[in-house]
Amino acid sequence: MSIDFRNFDAYAAVLLDLDGTVYHEEEALPGAVELIHRLIDQGRKFACLTNSTSSPRRLVARLHRMGVRIDADRIYTAGAAAADYILEHFGQGTSPRVYSLGTDGFHELLNGKVTWVEHAGEPCDVVVCGTMTSVYATEERLRTALTILRSNAGAGQRARLLGMCADRVYPSPRGIEFGSGALTQLMSYAAAVEPVFTGKPEAVFFRELCGRLGVTPEKCLLIGDNLESDIGGARRVGMRTLLTLTGVTRREDLGSLTESQRPDGVIEDLRALL
Q: In angstroms, rounded to a whole number, what is the distance separating the alpha carbons of residues 230 and 222?
């Protein structure tokens, strides 16, 4: 049964992907500003989600420049998901000890809540991978991270490896960049450790966001442009899905999908929802 994508009454919350759905680089995509303002004006529960390794606060400023008025509590990033996961799973009652290859935005989320590890000889609970363009992912820091992962830390246990998201690549004004997933897998292979990922399409990402909104995944509609990280991840936790063709997925990509991989609906852009 196809969804009625012009009427959101059937959904407890609407989840909007950002890059490729709401904007591309520094430009809002057609219908995005109007749709978000409509959701706000109607008092609907919604959130914007992204595999950005930055903080929600930094993305608010970016969206404001595009004419989108939105608060940080309506944005959930892979960086925020990684921070949530660390605070919940590491430290065992004490401040988690973190070695970061992340971003300034990620550090903002955890400053004062964790102990930042700086040297290979220090006890460490988790090594976090963002992207290779991060100011923290220097050649020297990459070597230090590898040394930490290959040695024992803390009470005789190896540090865990956490990737903010499993994206292989992502687009930038310079072209295609190595994604957080690529850097994480490099570290995983070199250190012979299994990583954990917290961004899309991981179930932990979608369930944490739903918990923040006070809704269940089965009552949500996810709108995104990526068949793997948006549509696939949302479907696996029971969400209804709507694909927009303004990002990485093209209409010809749909022909090879099985029935279980197909989104519930397809639109050219967000103007179809106005």
A: 7
- Residue bearing tokens 């793997």: 228
Residue 77, helix vs strand vs coil:
strand
Q: What is the chain's alpha carbon radius of gyration, rounded to the nearest angstrom? A: 19
- The residues near 59 (Cβ < 8 Å, ≥ 6 apart) are 18, 48, 50, 52, 72, 75, 77
- The DSSP bridge partners found for residue 201 are none
CATH number for the domain formed by residue range(s) 13-51+200-273: 3.40.50.1000
Length of the chain measured in residues: 274
- Supply 90's token pair: 């590491």
Compute the distance between CA of residue 234 and CA of residue 217 in angstroms, rounded to an integer: 8
Q: Tell me the per-residue pLDDT of 207-231, one tens digit each, with 9 for 90 and over.
A: 999 999 999 999 999 999 999 999 9
Separation between Cα atoms, residue 52 and residue 233, nearest integer Å? 16
Q: Any idea what the Cα angle at residue 24 is, between residues 59 and 7, rounded to 5°?
A: 85
Start-to-end CA span in the chain (Å): 21
Distance CA 77, CA 83 (A): 10
Name the segment(s) of the chain with CATH classification 3.40.50.1000. Answer: 13-51+200-273, 81-197
What is the pLDDT, as a whole number, of residue 175?
Answer: 79
Is the pTM for the entire model greater than 0.85?
yes
- The gap from C-alpha 71 to its chain's centroid, in whole angstroms, comes to 17
CATH (residue range 81-197): 3.40.50.1000
Quick: pLDDT tens for 116-138: 999 998 999 999 999 999 999 99
Closest CA to 17 of 213, 206, 178: 206
Per-residue model confidence as pLDDT tens digits over 26-38: 999 999 999 999 9
